Amino acid sequence: MTDVIIIGAGPGGIFSAYELVKLNPGMKITVLEAGNPLDKRKCPIDGEKIKSCVGCKPCSIMNGFGGAGAFSDGKYNITNQFGGTLYEYIGKNRAIDLMKYVDEINLKHGGEGTKLYSTANSDIKKLCLQNGLHLLDASVRHLGTDINYVVLENIYNELKDQVEFKFNMPVSKVEKLENGYRAITEKGEVFEGEKCIISAGRSGSKWMETVCKDLAIPTKSNRVDIGVRVELPAEVFSHLTDELYESKIIYRTEKYGDLVRTFCMNPKGAVVNENTNGIVTVNGHSYEDPAKQTENTNFALLVAKHFSAPFKDSNGYGESIARLSNMLGGGVIVQRFGDLIAGKRSTESRIQEAFITPTLAATPGDLSLVMPKRILDGIIEMIYKLDKIAPGTANVDTLLYGVEVKFYNMEVEIDENLETPHKGLFIIGDCSGITHSLSHASASGVHVARYIAGEK
């Protein structure tokens, strides 16, 4: 019997362990992680011998120490305007304070010298408003995929002698005991703790649904974000990225009134594959090291879809669209914007003739055969709007990769301490359905750790 079991070594789990060790060094903590240690997380795609996803289990991009965020762009957005609804549970000021606290820890563990960007008092905000677009306020710390790795490595080295980490230990079931909780792994190993923190991340959304069903924890339907990843020459967006780095821009479409938003902007970055529950989708990375940078910038354009009665399976809807892309393209599909508008599929020769070199080896095809018309119409509208503030966005050779899907867990019933109706069982990070970012997930971990430490 340990004091605390933490399921998942993503941002939420890591910062729960970090804060618990800091506040109560003698506490016995066991972290169960489905993936590998940080130094063994290797995606086999090299762009030469292996060009597409081979379905590793578990996926090293999505699982392992650091979670899916380990190989993301390392952007910590300090804001309540996006990235989750944590503030609705713990208060706006506390949420911001915790995000700033996490930022300080990152700086102490290898992130010093990285830049903090801000959208405040920006001329770009005015330019957006003049063109029917809305730039959200945030302070953005950009670590980059390379520095983010160093930060995680340093935090792990600090924790490894005080916390018991168990890797390659996917948990199949969580049971409530008379005086605590039991986690049973797929290998049949059993771990018991007085308290249990579940931080299974976005990739654990399906598993989280079964846990909630088994323990009768109420949930409600969340949303799914569906869209494409846009890749264009870095110069097109340089006036935005040089000043803001990450610009979260929202647009309400004229045709349907849907909200389309930019997401995960990667200046001079690369487009990458992502495997979620066996479905290959697309994402983006960028680096702080100039030697690793490319000549392109990429970002996602996403449309959020909410479902209620009679259909409530938001994630199932997103999965079906992504599977269709996998069926037609064997993975991710890439199409030139000009081909999409002209109503023809992109071919290998058209991609090669374009004035931009793709950073991901994807299958040329036709996204209109995959994406629902309403979503694709919204994305096209948004591209033409972005062209007003960043001329060149709607260029014929702009590349669109699909499908990008952001799955969100069903929103789980938790209180202001992020505790479920079962005393001592906490659900944090993206698997709770209330955080959607590195900063919010990390902050939720610190919040729960302080609550638990205060009880001891």
Outline the fold blueprint.
Layout: E1 2-7, H1 11-23, E2 29-32, E3 75-78, H2 87-90, H3 92-111, E4 116-118, H4 123-130, E5 134-135, E6 139-142, H5 144-159, E7 164-166, E8 171-177, E9 180-185, E10 190-198, H6 205-214, E11 219-220, E12 223-233, H7 234-244, E13 249-252, E14 259-266, E15 270-276, E16 279-285, E17 296-306, H8 314-329, E18 333-336, H9 337-342, H10 348-353, E19 363-364, H11 373-389, E20 399-407, E21 411-412, E22 425-427, H12 438-455
Parallel strand pairs: 1-2, 1-10, 2-7, 10-22, 18-19
Antiparallel strand pairs: 3-6, 4-6, 5-13, 8-9, 9-10, 11-21, 12-17, 12-20, 13-14, 14-17, 15-16, 18-20
Description:
- The chain has an eight-stranded mixed β-sheet with strand order 5-13-14-17-12-20-18-19. Strands 1, 2, 7, 8, 9, 10 and 22 form a seven-stranded mixed β-sheet that branches.
- The protein is 32% helix and 26% strand.
- 52% of the residues are buried.
- The two termini are 16 Å apart.
- The longest helix has 20 residues, at 92-111.
- A hairpin with a 2-residue loop joins strand 15 (270-276) and strand 16.
- It is α+β, with helices and mostly antiparallel strands and 456 residues long.
